[in-house]
Amino acid sequence: MPLPPSSRKAERVVRRHLADGTVREYRYPAVRKVQRYGPDSVAALIGAWKRSPEWTALAEATRRTYLIYLRDIELLAATDARDVARRDILELRDAIAQARGHGAANGFIRTAGALFTWALDREWIEHTPLTRVRALPGGHLAAWTEQQAALALTHLPEPLRRVVILGMHTAQRRGDLCRLTWADYDGQRIRVRQQKTGVQLSIPCHPELKIELDAWKRSARTLTILELDGQPWHPMRLSERMARALAKIEGMPPHLNVHGLRKLGATRVADAGGSAHEIAAITGHQTLSMVALYTRSADQERLATAAIHRLSTSRTTTTKTRAKALK
Fold it and tell me: CATH number for the domain including 204?
């Protein structure tokens, strides 16, 4: 008997590049059981949200981020949406925090909040399980330091080394780094239209970056500036490979990621005395409060150094004045 259309599925072959450079194939069966959920389940709610005009109106980058954390919420797929409790959300949040860090846990909370707020508005539920569920402290992605970047550049394989160089010199988001093409580089500047905000930037290339770019371009195999084995990087794959590679480098702290290079880029400008407006002209931030968040550590160190220098100068002058008066 022929299989029903809902159960027929062509065999899929998925290839994974392992850390040692080998490629492993995973084959999935041609037929899999179709899981069905009730009309009021969390799975049905997610499906309805993704078909709604509110979902369509979201920026593409926001939808991609939500999809990452919807996979975590799908652990409750069979549960009636009205039966999801605050305790369920907290248990998921805490498990994500332990496995992937506070930043990922807070991303899950934002996604769940958006989903259940929509459900409340559409009368799927009578109250949201996100009541009094707050973000975890320290959820912001860590910035790289100059020392960590130097260590990484010494030990990372070339495709990831290039990511570090481009990220720290342009201060762009992971997705925008992956999308940059050679057409965006004119030999002096990099032009980027940020996918998340639509902001268009023209960033002069630091001499160190220009040397690297010119060398890469001579042997380029892709239209994109960054590549892996002759193929453009996929953002998620880049994050996975970067995390594995950094974990092998002695002295590198956990939870560093590509986005931390964006913060390093902003911090480098701040350390050089750049103003918040100058930093925003590179990062594309539309609010100076976010620039302040990115460069807080740099500002604190620079201001503290200036304060101690000022105090030291003042004390030295006072001491000389007193000594002169005693003569």
Answer: 1.10.443.10
